[in-house]
Amino acid sequence: MTINPAKSYFTILASKKFSHIPSIKIEGNNIKFTKHLKYLGVVFDSKLIWNHHLNSIEDKINSLQHKLYRISRTTWELNPTVKKEIHTEVTEKIISYGHEIWYQDKIRQNIKILKLQRSGLLNITKCYKSVSTDALQVLAGIPPLDLKLKFSSIIFKLKIGSQPYTLQNSVIQPQSFNHKKPMIPPWTKAAFSWNYFNNSNITAGTLIYTDGSKMNNRVGGAFVAYDKGKEIFSHGFRLSDHETVFSAERMAIEAAIDFVINNNIQISSIISDSRSVLQAIDNPNNLDNNIIKIKDKISCYNPLRGASSLDVYGSHDPGVTQ
């Protein structure tokens, strides 16, 4: 990779005023300093206020709206449905590009965003310019863009695990979201089939029953192990109130697998009544990190143990499992 110093610029990100501008050189050539630097379509300023980025977006939106006005007049125009689709798929996409980085939910910023949205709403509804933005949003059937950006930014922050978010006295934890892995090669995908359990299926080995539940807004799970009809071990655990029954069932199965591996149990069978978790384990395209972790533990245990086996079963329905 080569860098062209003549086309290169640098800026300084600082909350306070800096006393002097440093000198940066590449191959003996000075790099120019600029207060606003555009990188991957986002305009950065030294204080990260993002006003210049919104101003650059405004120029694009105004140019786009003028072109749309040419082909959509009061007496002859595009179908309103087409104009609405152009607005949602083009105009709003231009405004919201990179908002996970620059959106800060500030009053002035929201006013600017609604101003950018307003021009498109006027073109869709053909109302007078004196009509309020709220009324235009209702008439066009398009929600406020600032609220859409706020919602999307919250989801983004939760997914990357940066911080929890409080919504109406309820704290949403980042752990509530699935953090998926990138696409994995097809030859590394794994699926573990399961069948329905009945007493005649299994004649030897350790039986482990798992369960997860949510009652009175409390979530927890447990498993109990039997060997030759006698209880040999049981374990229960409590989860955060925001967790789901699916998470409790999944963690109960994972805890049972850990019990089998840690105690070097040669032949074992895990019985669960959570069909959703079992189907997730059986799905080779499931990219949930927690499900992949369960698959990895099963695959690492079974092939390396020779005659040992760890099977998973579903309960409540007749059939045979493996």
Structure explained in plain terms:
A 6-stranded mixed sheet has the order 9-14-13-10-11-12, with helices on one face. It has a two-stranded parallel sheet with strand order 1-4. The chain has a two-stranded antiparallel sheet with strand order 2-3. It has 9 helices and 14 strands. Strand 5 and strand 6 form a beta hairpin. It has about 325 residues and is an alpha/beta fold. The model is unreliable at about 305-310 and about 315-320 (pLDDT under 50). The protein is about 40% helix and about 20% strand. It has helices at about 50-70, 80-95, 100, 105-125, 135-140, 145-160, 245-260, 275-280, 290-300; strands spanning about 10, 25, 30, 30-35, 35-40, 40-45, 165, 170, 195, 205-215, 220-225, 230-240, 265-270, 310-315. The chain starts with 8 loop residues before the first strand and ends in an 8-residue tail after the last strand. Helix 1 (about 50-70) packs parallel to helix 4 and helix 2 (about 80-95) runs antiparallel to helix 4. This is RNase H type-1 domain-containing protein. One of its GO terms (molecular function) is nucleic acid binding.
Give a summary of the structure in a few sentences:
The chain is an alpha/beta fold and 322 residues long. The chain is 38% helix and 20% strand.
Sheet with the most strands, sense and barrel status: 6 strands, mixed
How many separate helices? 9
The geometry reads as: elongated
The secondary structure category is alpha/beta
How much strand content do the residues show?
15-25%
Strand order of the largest sheet: 9-14-13-10-11-12
Mean pLDDT: 81
In total, how many beta strands? 14
**From N to C, what is the helix and strand string?**
EEEEEEHHHHHHEEEEEEHEHHE
Q: How large, in whole angstroms, is the Cα Rg?
A: 29 Å
Percent of residues in helices: 25-40%
- Are there runs of 5+ residues with pLDDT below 50, and where? 303-309, 317-322
Distance between the termini: 54 Å
